[in-house]
Amino acid sequence: MAKVHNFSAGPSILPREVLEKAASAVLDFDNLKLSLLEISHRSKNFEAVMERARSLVKELMQLPDGYSVLFLQGGASLQFVMVAQNLLRERGKAAYIDTGTWASNAIKEAKIFGQVEVVASSKADNYRYIPKGYTIPADADYFHCTSNNTIYGTQIKEFPTSPIPMVCDMSSDIFSRRIDFSKFSLIYAGAQKNMGPAGTTLVVVKDEILGKTGRAIPAMMDYRTHISKDSMYNTPPVFAVYVSMLTMEWLVSNGGLEWIENINRQKAELMYAEIDRNPLFYGTVAPEDRSWMNACFLLKDPALEPEFDKMWKEAGISGLRGHRSVGGYRASMYNALPLESVQVLVEVMKEFERIKG
Ligand code: PMP
């Protein structure tokens, strides 16, 4: 089978060895002669998986005491709701920065629970940069940001120092670089980019910020329910948690965040250097805010798209088309994408220039 270079924006590429281990556990898990999918989530074998997954998150994030790690369902989109429902006080206010489609969806949901102050937005400029120099109001209940804007290809390089609890949607760049995770009071991320398959969402929350809203919260929506039951209040997404555990093991055993940051930097530098150099293409976002995960670019002459598309597809590249709402191209270079795949794409772009030039 010819190699496919998988630039999918999510669900996206996972390490080959993780897929192999996952496939084997579907047939026979822990030598039980039973599938991972057909044993109780209360069995000691699965409880060990959940415990290991939690401890890998803590190891990768180097968190101090006082945080809980949860594996929930409902995607990052449900976190748009749960964050506000659990943190926004009755008659309270929350602060958000609007840096893209997902941030704006989070804002929309928060408005159901209280007042939302959008402290900065780059919407008027088609989200092509990350706003900076804004003030976070000290009287809001929390400040929400999105570390990486998957659709527009921008990424926060330096997080603000927030006078109030800082919440971050890290769905599309979780575990891709070293950051000071202890700056955040709540972090959430859908697993399906850097962490594992679709079906679970990582939530890391500082316990002390919970229980202050004054509203009744249904059990399934209340972080405290899930904390008190170690993410087993109801049946957890066993397969997604298991594959996330394997992916984190892969990351840790290879050298952790320092190792992957180094590779991700190389991939991004190679990709953006070609976008800038090649006269047929241009990048769509402010250079200082360029995402290491999702490089968005366009052909200067859109009429060339069918020919370019044919060429990268023939080279075994998959998933390069931009999000349906913005068009153009998006090279998603998540953790498991090898440098070699970016090299192949860059060669295709050079070859295209040669043919057209
Ligand atoms: N936030 C970000 C940054 C995302 O990229 C996505 C999905 N691509 C979401 C939220 C929504 O995630 P989900 O589909 O898991 O609800």
Protein model, in words:
The chain is α/β, with parallel strands linked by helices and 357 residues long. The chain has 9 helices and 14 strands. The chain folds into 2 domains: 239 residues, Type I PLP-dependent aspartate aminotransferase-like (Major domain) (Aspartate Aminotransferase, domain 2); 101 residues, Aspartate Aminotransferase, domain 1 (Alpha-Beta Complex), CATH 3.90.1150.10. Helices cover 35% and strands 17% of the residues. The strands form 4 sheets. The protein has a 7-stranded mixed β-sheet with strand order 2-10-9-8-5-3-4, with helices on both faces. Strand 6 and strand 7 form a beta hairpin. Helix 1 runs antiparallel to helix 6, helix 6 packs across helix 7 and helix 7 runs parallel beside helix 9. The protein binds 4'-deoxy-4'-aminopyridoxal-5'-phosphate (PMP).
Which features characterize this protein?
alpha/beta; Aspartate Aminotransferase, domain 1; binds 4'-deoxy-4'-aminopyridoxal-5'-phosphate; 9 helices; three-stranded antiparallel sheet; 357 residues; seven-stranded mixed sheet
Quick summary:
This protein is of the alpha/beta class and 357 residues long. The chain folds into two domains: 16-254, Type I PLP-dependent aspartate aminotransferase-like (Major domain) (Aspartate Aminotransferase, domain 2, 3-Layer(aba) Sandwich); 256-356, Aspartate Aminotransferase, domain 1.
